[in-house]
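name: query_chain
kind: protein
chains: 1
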Amino acid sequence: MKKIFLFCFAMAGYLLYAQDYRVSLIPDSLKDDANVVKRIDNTDITIKGNDKAVIIHKWAYTILNEAGEHFSVYRNDYDQFQSLNDITGKMYDANGKLIKTIHKKDIVDMSINDGESLVNDARLKVFAFYNKVYPYTVEFEDEVVLKGIFTLPSWQPVNAEKLSIMESHFFVETPSGYLLRYKQFCYNGLPLKDSNDKRIIYQWKLTGKKAIREEIFQPDWMEITPNVLLAPTNFEFAGYKGNMENWKNFGLFLTELIKNRQVLPDNLKQEVHKLTDGLKNEEKVKVLYKYLQDNTRYIGIQLGIGGWQPFDAAYVSKYKYGDCKALSNFMVSLLKEAGVKANYVTIYNDDSFKGAYDDFPMNLFNHVIACVPSQKDTIWLECTNQTVSLGFLGESSSNRNALLIDEDGGHLVRTPVYEKKDNQKIRKIDAVVDADGNLEANIHTFFSGIAQESIHGLFYHFNKEEQEKYLNKVINLPTYKVEKVSFKETRDRIPAMDEFINLNSSNYAAVTGKRLFVQPDIINVEQKLPSDRPRQFDVLIPYAYNEVDSITIVIPKFYSIETLPKNMSVSNKFGSYSTNYTVSGNSIQLIRVQVHNAIHLPPEEYDALVKFYDIMYKTDRAKIVFVKNDN
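structure:
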C-alpha cells in the first residue's frame, strides 16, 4: 500500500509542478525544429471491471508558431457507449499568465458527419482558442466513461511531426485479477508496475523527446515512434461477453454478432438459384457479385452496436443498401444459398497502417470484406464498391493481416500482395513539334493493378470537365491544354484502365537562334529525394511496380541532331532504370523503363536510394539539341 501511495504522490507532485507554463522553462533543444511543445500529457485510465473504465486526460501544448495552431483546438467524441464529461480549458501567454478560460457555453456539441453514414449516433464536442500572438499555451482536461469495454485507449505521445515532448505519462489502474494485455513500440524497458491485493497500476512515461520530421518512404508512424496498445482479455460490450486472449476467441465474439443474420427471404433464394444453378463455383461468385453491385449501394448506419454488428441479409434485400458489414454479410448469404462457402472478414482499410498483429489480438479493424477461401486461389470481395473488379482489393486492403470469421472462431489470414507484374504503367506517346517549339501529342497509357486505382476513380467519379481540369494539373509540362480524354476499362482479377489523351503544349521546345531544345521525356519525370538531413527511419516501399514509356517525337525536316543524350542503364536493390534513344530521319524515339522493387531497408541505405533517384532526375531532364540546316 505504501508503494502505491508513493506512486500516486509522485504523479500529484508532477502535476503541481507542471502548472507553470512560462515558455522560458522549455529547453532550447525542445524548441528546435518544433511547431508545438507538449508540456504535459497525462492519461489516467481506471478499469473498474470487464464492462467499465474511467479515463481522465490532461494535456497542455505550447504553440510556437502558426503551423502548430491546430493543436489549440479541443476535440473529442462520444456516443451511447462512452460519455464525455468535465471539460476544462485554459490559455496562457508566453509568461505563463492565464488569459482565457473555456466556459460551457463556448463548447460546440455537434453530430459527427463522416460524409458516408446516413445515420450516426456519435457526437463531437469542439472548442478553439483563437490567438495569433505566439508563443502561447493551451491546457485541456476531460473525463470519458466507457460503458462497456471492447477497445481501450492507446498511448501515442509523439502524435505528430515537429512536436516535442517535455513530459508524457500513461497510467492504467486495474482490479488485481484483471488480465490487461499491452504491446509496446519503440519504448525501452517495461512499464513501472505496482500492486497490492486490490489493484495493479502500470505507468509508461516519456520525457525530453525532441521533435522529429516525417520522411519519405518511412514505415507506419506506430512503428517508428514510442506508443503502447492496450487490450482486455475478457470484456463485456453492449450486452455481449467476449474474450480476445487469442484470435480464435476474438472471432467467436464476432460470430455471435452475425449469428442468424444470413437468412435470405424466399423470393431472393429463388432468384439466387435462377441465376446460379448449373454454374461452376467461380461463375456463381462472378454472377452474384454482379448482382450485389447492381442491386445495392453503400450507406453507413452507425447506431449503437450497429458499429460492429451488421444488418441482417433480409434487411439489405428489402432496402437495397447497407454499410460494409451489412453488404459483406449479404454477399456471404447469397453465396451460401448458391452452395458456395464464403466468409465474413474484418480488416483495417487504409494505406497508413497495415493491419492486425499476429501476436496481439485486439480491435484493430475498421472495415469488413468477404472472401471465398481456397488453398490455391482465394477470391477476395470488396462489397461496398459498385465499380471495382471482382477479386481486386486495392492498395488500402491488400498486403496485410485480416481476421476471417468462421464457425469455430477467428483465423488471421493475409490478403494478396500485388507484384510488379500486376502494377504496371505502360505508356505510348506520339508527338509532333513544329518550328516554333509547339507540341501536339497523343498519349495512350495502360494502367493495371494498384497503378490503375487513381485513374479508375477519375473515370467513375469525375465528369469530363473535371477530368480535363484534373489532368491539366497533374501532367508534368510547363504549359499545356488537354484537348480530348477518354478511358476504357478491363475488369479482371487484376483490373486495367486504358487512358487516351490528346494535348497541345505551346513553347514546349525552346527555340534559340538556329537551335531547338527538346526534352523527349514529356510526362514521366522523376523527382529528387530530400537529402538535407541524416535519415532517421527505415526505408519502406511496400509495392513493386513497373513503368515503360515509348516516346516518339517528330521534328521539322529542316533540323538535324547536334547533341543526343547518352543511353543510360542502372540496376540495384531498389530496382532498375534505363533509357534508349533511336533516331530515324526526323523522328526520335525514347524507350524509358523504370522498375521499382518492394523494399524494407535500414536508414543507412537511403543515401544510395537518393543517388539512384538523382540519376533518374538528371536523365529524365536530358535534352536533345537540334540545329537548323542552312540549305
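note: Residues 1-18 have pLDDT under 50 and may be disordered.
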